[in-house]
Write a structure and sequence with these properties.
CATH superfamily: 2-enoyl-CoA Hydratase, Chain A, domain 1
Strand content: 25-35%
CATH architecture: Alpha-Beta Complex
CATH class: Alpha Beta
Number of helices: 6
CATH topology: 2-enoyl-CoA Hydratase, Chain A, domain 1
Largest sheet: 5 strands, mixed
Strand order of the largest sheet: 1-2-3-5-7
């Protein structure tokens, strides 16, 4: 059985969207990018959703770029950021979105968090812009 990369649960008019790759600290694989983009755009289009909460399965919110997948796939890894950017989807949402930051929030994860309308951070939250360290530009572009 395949584990779902993004979990969604409705609590009344609030949809909770959870990035679900805990073993990889919710790093943005191409499959997770696609799944998160779909979940976010569907939530934004759903008239019954008044607010969205975006979080990650412990121990992290989102470690950003999946460095292992990016190293294997080279520039093609970044194509998903252009065609189905979950980072841009957060920033473009008409529906209010709250980032529930529960741990490490790096690189693209930081960009997603900053796109939220409001952030709530746990005591374990850590924020870092590591784009320069890994040699990429913000926005998922190499």
């Amino acid at each position: 059985m395949t584990e779902r990369l993004v979990l969604t649960v409705d609590h009344g008019a609030v949809r909770v969207v959870t990035l679900n790759r805990p073993a990889a600290r919710n790093a943005l694989s191409r499959d997770l990018i696609r799944a998160a983009y779909s979940a976010l755009t569907e939530a934004d289009a759903d008239e019954s959703v008044s607010a969205v909460v975006l979080t990650g399965t412990d121990p992290a919110f989102c470690a950003g770029v999946d460095l292992k997948e990016a190293a294997r796939n080279g520039l093609s890894y970044f194509s998903k950021f252009r065609s189905q950017s979950c980072i841009a989807a957060v920033a473009k949402m008409r529906t209010p979105i709250v980032g529930a930051i529960n741990g490490a929030t790096f690189t693209g994860g930081l960009e997603m968090a900053l796109g939220c309308d409001f952030l709530v951070a746990s005591e374990r939250a850590v924020f870092a812009d590591t784009h320069a360290r890994v040699g990429i530009l913000p926005g998922g572009c190499p």
